[in-house]
Specification:
alpha+beta, Butyryl-Coa Dehydrogenase, subunit A, domain 1, Butyryl-CoA Dehydrogenase, subunit A, domain 2, Butyryl-CoA Dehydrogenase, subunit A, domain 3, four-stranded antiparallel β-sheet, 11 helices, 10 strands
């Protein structure tokens, strides 16, 4: 067994079984797709139904709604194993299963759950979440320009969302929009945050379109797009969390998302370490394997320590986040912990992949190699779900409150 994929004493026997079974599935079913997905920015249309049929969607959703009935920790382990073998599938999986499906189940009413959750669990519907805008990234709330104007028994949405994972292929979207200001007015008054609504929007809704599919440096098989809302009418029954609950849905969802991005980083780092160990054993220079040279050994040792510390911190925060009820995130200790977890995981992944490419030398610089594919993906982890700088602000603000 690879040192990066060994059994972990941090997991129960049931949790280790989930990780191992998903690893076997991902290696056999998802790894063979990875090269083509990266080369052609291709997404297999049948992939989400296959994941649903295999039991890898709706992990933390109760069985009565079509889910697996497990925990957030199990969701993180599934994501970790998928990320080892196909990180493009992993990021689309987390956008579907966590950002959309889990968010909808946690915050939705019974009618909304019954309508959307079973199809998302089966993978016959694909989910996405739309927050970021052309002028609203790190300041996603204060600079939000997408508006929702009350109109009778519904709302009229206008605006644009950008960098939306699964945007071009999704059927169900959670869309955040300002409720209390128009597009040409400032987003906040007297330093107060604007009122935000979370809306369930379906593909095919009049006035809603995918403007373009975006081409990326990494995670290339995962489909990313720009969404446009032009007088898009959404029924009031599609409001998630109530008219005054959108901000709580948004902030709580971000914390759970950060807790889930960390195991994706861990899975990629594990794979990079395993590839580097194998390469150090087989690549020969000066008549011997490069793994016999002290500088290469030092790099492998550093990578191992980074991976193991990522593992410990990731699992600890996943367990903490699994205890949080709907509405309980977005503040306090869990707000600080999830920001710290994803920040450390992303920065450590960057270091692991930098050393991995160095060990692979010229081979690591070639676009088609697997280690190059991993290296091109790593930077997004320091940008998505709040940049490293935003994560540091969250951590420091919570520390100074104590």
């Amino acid at each position: 067994m690879s040192p990066a994929l060994r059994d972990s004493s941090d997991l129960t026997s049931d949790e280790q079984q989930i990780l191992d079974e998903t690893d076997r599935f991902a290696r056999g079913e998802l790894y063979p797709l990875a090269a083509r997905m990266d080369r052609d920015e291709w997404w297999p249309d049948d992939l989400f139904p296959r994941l649903g049929a295999a039991g890898y969607l709706g992990i933390a959703v109760p069985e009565e709604y079509g889910g697996v009935g497990s925990t957030l920790v199990a969701s993180g382990l599934v994501l970790q194993a998928i990320a080892r073998w196909n990180h493009a599938v992993a990021i689309s999986w987390v956008a579907h299963d966590n950002l959309c499906l889990d968010n909808l189940f946690r915050n939705g009413n019974e009618e909304q759950r019954r309508r959307y959750v079973p199809g998302l669990c089966r993978g016959t519907s694909v989910g996405a979440l739309a927050l970021t805008e052309p002028a609203a990234g790190s300041d996603a709330i204060g600079s939000m320009r997408t508006t929702a104007r009350r109109d009778g028994n519904g709302f009229i949405l206008n605006g644009t969302k950008l960098y939306i994972t699964n945007g071009p292929i999704a059927d169900v979207f959670i869309v955040y929009a300002r409720l209390d200001h128009q597009r040409d007015q400032p987003a906040a008054v007297d330093g107060r945050r604007p009122s935000v609504g979370a809306f369930i929007v379906e593909k095919g809704c009049e006035g809603f379109s995918v403007a373009q599919k975006l081409s990326k440096m990494g995670f290339r098989g995962s489909q990313t797009g720009e969404l446009v809302f032009e007088n898009c009418r959404v029924p009031a029954s599609h409001l998630l969390g109530g008219e005054n609950g959108g901000l709580a849905v948004l902030m709580g969802g971000l914390d759970i998302e950060r807790a889930m991005i960390a195991p994706m980083c861990l899975g990629i780092a594990e794979r990079a370490l395993a590839l580097s160990v194998d390469y150090a054993k087989t690549r020969r220079q000066f008549g011997q394997a490069i793994g016999s040279f002290q500088m290469v050994r030092a790099k492998l040792a550093d990578m191992y320590v980074w991976v193991e510390t990522m593992r410990c911190f990731t699992y600890r925060v996943l367990r903490e986040a699994a205890q949080v009820k709907a509405g309980g995130a977005g503040r306090g200790e869990i707000h600080k912990l999830t920001a710290a977890s994803v920040m450390y995981a992303a920065e450590s992944l960057n270091k692991v992949l930098n050393e991995a490419v160095q060990i692979h030398g010229g081979n690591g610089y070639i676009w088609e190699t697997e280690i190059n594919r991993l290296y091109r993906a790593n930077k997004l982890a320091e940008i998505g779900a709040g940049t490293t700088e935003i994560r540091k602000l969250i951590i420091s603000e919570e520390l100074l409150k104590e």
